[in-house]
Design brief:
Number of domains: 1
Number of strands: 2
Shape: globular
CATH architecture: Orthogonal Bundle
Distance between the termini: 88 Å
Order of helices and strands: HHHEEHHHHHHHHHHHH
CATH topology: Ammonium transporter fold
Largest sheet: 2 strands, antiparallel
Radius of gyration: 23 Å
Low-confidence stretches: 1-23
């Protein structure tokens, strides 16, 4: 009888103290934060990245860029449901180190009570989907103003399946790189290096825009660019702080270092231009901000404010000179500087994560027994693997599509502008 009473007291204590209940119970605070973060990350693509990119191109191509970002959002969402999510985050059995299975394709067993950790799995599905959406959308900036809409849709779809899915699984889906201890909190490797390398390959395969580099091709609407950049900055808090998957101190620190990285990257780029060209440009400060954000992304959950400041300043320097080198020395028409900003920024941030995560430099500390040199080596391996995989398969996809349907519009169509040629619409009534 005494034992039965003890059970009653234990049950009553559990009811009165939700914190003592199993970790499988829904956490409403975490759920609310990830709901917010999911909306913020989707907001980064539509309308943030869409407006940022659309303002950077010439007025005759503004709608084509908006259309590409919008269509990518739709098609990646369906592919994510059809199996991409499952191949990353479900059990792959004997192949788990390299790829997940298809048990979660179309979410057959997912209900409103299904959890991933202490948040709904439907929400985790949505949050991860927003990352999958923005990654191929970033690549749009490399081939803007000259790729066929049909080719863009095919490329984005195939690239998600053959490039994004395996790399994401290796790092975030308990794959072989994760088992080595690679640190990529919010996508410096999975997203920025991955998309940046694909962008470089795209620019090389599809070729230069007609008139590049002798003809000036300035942004047609800087107001639109700054508006989109501001949306990216705000949305990035969901991108990085949301990746903590909790509403706790780590999420708060990720938000803080994200902001410091953006601000320091923006100021560094601005001052470099000011010294070199005599005047600071609006385009420069917003591009430096994006470089700072992309570079702090892999480190955002592992470093402190001092590390973020150093990473942001480094991003401003490295990405500025990378942009100059790619455009002026290599003469590669990566139209909107995707590789020098996102690719080089992602590489820089991923390597520096192994340094500034060390507790002696204000980070959260490395795993037991892991030295800074070893962690940087693991980071470098992941970077090289991503460069090789993304570069090779991006090239194969592009060459295959070029042979099948052709990648770019004709020279006359390019001169006329993609808005009229591909969509029979114009962004502005006076053109």
């Amino acid at each position: 009888m005494k034992t039965k009473n003890n059970y009653k007291y234990i049950a009553l204590a559990l009811l009165l103290a939700p914190g003592l209940v199993s970790a499988a119970e829904l956490n409403q605070a975490n759920t609310a934060w990830i709901l917010t973060s999911t909306a913020l990350v989707l907001f980064m693509t539509i309308p943030g990245l869409s407006l940022f990119y659309a303002g950077l191109v010439r007025s005759k191509n503004v709608l084509s860029v908006l259309m590409q970002c919008f269509a990518i959002t739709c098609v990646i969402s369906i592919l994510w449901l059809a199996g991409a999510y499952s191949l990353i985050f479900s059990d792959g059995g004997e192949l788990q180190k390299y790829l997940g299975g298809m048990s979660k394709a179309f979410l057959p067993d997912i209900t409103t009570t299904s959890l991933t950790g202490d948040i709904p799995e439907t929400l985790y599905f949505m949050f991860q989907m927003t990352f999958a959406i923005i990654t191929p959308a970033l690549i749009v900036g490399a081939f803007a103003e000259r790729m066929k809409f049909s080719a863009m849709l095919w490329f984005s779809s195939l690239w998600l399946c053959l490039v994004y899915v395996p790399i994401c699984h290796w790092i975030w889906g308990s794959g072989w790189l994760a088992s080595l201890g690679v640190m990529d909190f919010a996508g410096g490797i999975v997203i920025h290096i991955n998309a940046g390398v694909a962008a470089l390959v795209s620019a090389l395969v599809i070729g230069k825009r007609k008139g590049f580099p002798t003809t000036a091709m300035p942004p047609h609407n800087m107001t639109m660019v700054v508006t989109g950049a501001g949306m990216l900055w705000v949305g990035w808090f969901g991108f990085n702080a949301g990746s903590a998957l909790t509403s706790d101190g780590r999420a708060g620190m990720a938000m803080l270092v994200t902001h410091i990285g953006a601000a320091s990257g923006a100021l560094t780029w601005m001052f470099i231009e000011w010294v070199r060209f005599g005047k600071p440009s609006v385009l420069g400060i917003v591009t430096g901000m994006v470089a700072g954000l992309g570079t702090i992304t892999p480190a955002s959950g592992f470093v402190g404010p001092i590390g973020a400041l150093v990473i942001g300043v480094t991003a401003g320097f490295v990405c500025f000179y990378a942009t100059q080198f790619v455009k002026r020395k290599l003469i590669i028409d990566d139209s909107l500087d995707v590789f020098p900003v996102h690719g080089i920024g992602g590489i820089t941030g991923s390597l520096l994560t192994g340094v500034f995560a060390d507790i002696s430099l204000g980070g959260i500390g490395l795993a037991d027994g892991v030295t800074m040199g070893h962690q940087v080596g693991v980071q470098a391996l992941a970077v090289l693997v991503t460069i090789a995989w993304s570069g090779l398969f991006s090239y194969l996809i592009l060459k295959g599509l070029d042979n099948w349907i052709g990648l770019r519009v004709t020279s006359d169509e390019e001169v006329q502008g993609l808005d009229q040629v591909l969509h029979e619409e114009t962004g502005y009534l006076d053109i």
